[in-house]
Each structure stands twice: as C-alpha cells, then as structure tokens.
Amino acid sequence: MHSALRTAQAAARRTMATASGKTLTIGLIPADGIGREVIPAARQVLEALPSDVMAARLKFVDLDAGFEYFQKHGVALPEQTLAALKSDCDGALFGAVSSPSHKVAGYSSPIVGLRKQMDLYANVRPVISGAAATASGDKRAIDMLIIRENTECLYIKDEELHEDANGKYAVAKRRISEFASRRAGEMAFSMALQRDSMRQLVGAAERTWTGRPKVTIVHKSNVLSVTDGLWRETVRSVYEGNAEYTRRVDVEEQLVDSMVYRMFREPEAFDVVVAPN
Question: 0.90 cut: is pTM over it?
C-alpha cells in the first residue's frame, strides 16, 4: 500500500478513535448536476467503513442549495440550510453547482455564500498519488497539501461597470488583508507540523516525503506588489514570529506562473503549498 495512504489511514484511525460511541451529523448538499450522483455515492462509502476506521455513528441530513433550487425558489442558499449547518451538523459534503456563465439577477453562488456565512477561510486540498512512471522512466509519488485562502481576493465580488468616451469598461476590486492572510499562513504551518507527526506513524522507508516539513508560499508580488506583497509579507511573518515553525519547518517562495509549471513537472517537490484566493 502507498505510504501516504497508510499515513492518512493511521491518522484517520487515531482521530476516529476519539469519536468512538459518538454520533456525528453530516449535512448532504447534492445541489446541481453530478452532485446528485456523487453525494449519494459518498454516503454509501461512509456507511460501509469498518468500525476500526469509523468508530463514530453517522447521521445524515439532506439539505438544499444550488442554481436549480434558485430557479424554483428564488434563493440559491436557503436560510434553513445555513441554520442546519450551524446548529445541527458536525460537517457537510457539497456536490456541485451549475452556476451560469452570465449574470442572473438575484443569483449568487452558494459556494461563495457558504464560505462567507460559515467563515470557511481555508480550502484544504490533499493530493496523494502512488508512484507512477514518468516519461523519463522515473517513478515518483506525490504527497502534497494545497491550502488556498478562501474569503478574499477577487471573490469579494466587488465589481463596477463604467462608461467613458471609449465605451464601457469594468473594474473588479481585489482585497488582501493581514487578518485573512495570517489565518491561512497559520493553517499552512500548523498543517505542515501535523503532517510531519502523522508521518512518524509509519516507517521512514515507507514515507513518500522524507525531508523536513516544508511550506511553499505562492504569490505574484513581482507584479502585484501591494496586494500580493502584503500576502507574502504576512505569511512570512507568521513563520518568522513562531520559534517552532522556524526550527522545524522549511519555507520557500514561488511565483504563481512557475508554480503551475513546476506542479506539472515535479509535483513530488512540494509538501504544503499556501496561496491566496
């Protein structure tokens, strides 16, 4: 079995052991399109997990959201869904949203709404792959975690339409704050240490990532020197202001253009990646 998967399973068992005997309520939000296929399938997977992996009992609650719901009821994220998530649920699974590519009066993406209403400030995406042969014949495995700040940047949706002698022009405002950047940075460095602790649960020979924990800060501050400059400086200050981070975690920076290139060419070179929205 691939070592990154073994590590994740060991961590899951340790986490679920603390929930033994408890009932966890999971909100299910299929929403649109393929979401109505993948969410029922995900429920079946969770219900089939053996007790040594899922020690807690699971209770599922069906909730509404999405563009199709908006077309019928005039709202994409109903208040009853938000209320249930805030008061009744320990977690949630969201399917997919068929947001239109053109402006629809009164419609706003329920995904963006959930992020704001639930303060879901970090998008945490693990990328795990077993060793696969490359074009050069090398076999490389991937064990990467991508953390994306989830509340700001262009997703504040502050846009304006103007017109001058040359015709119409649109302006979109971009927001980067110390507060949001610091939270994302803290998440990245704390997760780097947590992943290192989980890796200690398996033998050194079985680990995909064998080096020290590492966080890669992605930005475009060579061009966006004010907004991405603040992002870069704030995330670095999280690192430099914590003795444990500086002692145990390596840090590097990568411009977003070359980051995309490197993620295709050498994804095994990254441990934890943190980027703005």
Answer: no
